[in-house]
Amino acid sequence: MIQESTLEAADAVFRQTVPAGDYFLKVIAAGQTLRILDLEGNQAADTLFYNANDVSERYSSMDTIREQGNIYLTAGSKLMSNLGNEMLVIVADTCGRHDTLGGACATESNSVRYDLEKRCMHACRDSWMLAIAEHEELGFTKRDITHNINFFMNVPVTAQGGLTFEDGISAPGKYVEMNAAMDVIVVISNCPQLNNPCNGYNPTPVEVLIWN
Amino acid sequence: MTETLYQYTVPAAAHWSLRIRRGTTLRLTDVEGGANLGMMLYNPEDLLEKYNAPDTLKCQHTFKLTQGNCLYSDMGRIFCSITEDSFGWHDTVCGTANKAMVQKKWGEKNYQSAHNEWHQNGYDSFLVELAKYGLNGKDLASNLNLFSKVVVDNEGNLSLDAKHIKAGANISLRFEMDTLVILHTCPHPLNSEAAYPYKPVHCELMTTPPMPEDDYCLNFCPENRRGFENNRLYHFFR
Ligand SMILES: [Zn+2]
């Protein structure tokens, strides 16, 4: 569902560009609004959320899709934790559909999906591994890296039970915006994927904006 | 060709775990029809390596799991292959119901009052078995729900196809690496039966002949060939 935001970029309390292949990690306070902006279009922002006060509670793709009874995320979707609590609500979305089934790219799965020789190409899970290593204060390990949201990705399921990676329905300037229902740590890997035609083999930066 | 090594019927609303050796097949049967088998897979030698539903689905361009599909770990390896399946469509995206969901749907029936007829839930079942290996809720990810067909319409709406039930339906999992299997027989989270469904699942462990070059799972898609190559590499260096 297309839902425009009422917020002005000039009023944001935080803005940062995240290049493709980098991670972004920040605490969002309950009540704050987070926008992820697809600057050049067809980029995938692979995103994880944790309860900032107890990181054993985290975003769960299965709880989210089951509780809303739908596999796609858009305005109105509640992002649920593994404990069944609402973490954030998508309040604006100019893209219309986001994926939470496809997971993140990893060097290991790239070797299966594309070619055994692709094992050493940069992947989202590597970005998260670096985030873990550089933020020891959070106590994260690989155990904490679980199924994520792929903002701006379009992964439709067919009636026959097929899963397809379609061309992105995102475009330059499209964004998704969500309101935090609890203090959350947001961890984004801005996808470095060079193997997937959906981004034209050209990963691009996204921008993160936060409002009080 | 194959020899049955062990058989056991997991009662309804129960949980179990076992380490299955590479080269063994686990055949599961929905004895009465309408069962749900929740399952998670871990590498017993590196418990951080676990079943990865997104990788399994996207590597094989599928939303459903059936014969020919391989079940992938997050490390690009294959825990097991679905060598036979008379059911046709198994779910791996809906997760498992917790205590609150089961209570809301069917009311509370605890062990003290109901003994084995209690309303046990899949989430607690997983936690109990995981704890035996030093694991906890942080190690849970999307699990398999065998014998549950979940479909998606054009708008993305999910539903359990409650009519797709076959008494005697069975699925065979051929293990391609040593695997810790955690399982429960609690109802699927989208089950809407009026009464809590008590359905057992029969398990049979069998020897497996060596995989031929024309194996169905190996040749199901080019991705699976690469997955098997990753397994070969893993075993080669051990
Ligand atoms: Zn990626």
TrEMBL record, chain A:
Q: Which Pfam families match?
A: DUF1989
Q: Which InterPro entries match?
A: DUF1989, UAAP2
Q: Which residues cross the membrane?
A: none
Source domain of life = Bacteria
Using the record's annotation, list all stretches that form the DUF1989 domain.
16-185
NCBIfam families membership? urea_degr_1 (TIGR03424)
**Protein's name in the database:** Urea carboxylase
Q: Which organism is it from?
A: Ketobacter alkanivorans
Upper taxonomic lineage: Bacteria, Pseudomonadati, Pseudomonadota, Gammaproteobacteria, Pseudomonadales
From TrEMBL, chain B:
Q: Which domain of life is it from?
A: Bacteria
Stretches assigned to the DUF1989 domain: 9-180
InterPro entries xrefs: DUF1989 (IPR018959), UAAP1 (IPR017792)
**Protein name (database record):** Urea carboxylase
